[in-house]
Amino acid sequence: MSQAYDVIIVGAGVVGLSSAVMLRQAGIKRILVVDKGAPGREASWAGGGILSPIHPHKYPGPLAALCARSATLYPKFIKDIEELAAFSTEFRSTGLIRLGQNSDDLAEIQAFHSKHGTPFRVLDKAEAKEIEPALSPDFSTVLYEADINQVRNPRLLKALITACSRLGVELLSDDPVERLLVSGDTVEGVQTTRAAYHGEETVLSAGAWSGRIMERSLRRSLKVVPIHGEMLRVETFPPLIKAILIHDGHYLIPRADGQVIIGSTLHDWGFDKKVCLESVQGLLAAAIRIVPALAHCEWKQAWAGLRPASPDRLPYIGRPVGIAGLTVATGHYRNGLLLGPATAEAVTSTILGTDPTLDLSPYAVDRKVPEFRL
Ligand SMILES: Cc1cc2nc3c(=O)[nH]c(=O)nc-3n(C[C@H](O)[C@H](O)[C@H](O)COP(=O)(O)OP(=O)(O)OC[C@H]3O[C@@H](n4cnc5c(N)ncnc54)[C@H](O)[C@@H]3O)c2cc1C
Question: Which of 73, 222, 300, 322 is within CB 3.0–4.6 Å of 341 for a Cys-Cys bond?
Answer without folding.
Answer: 73
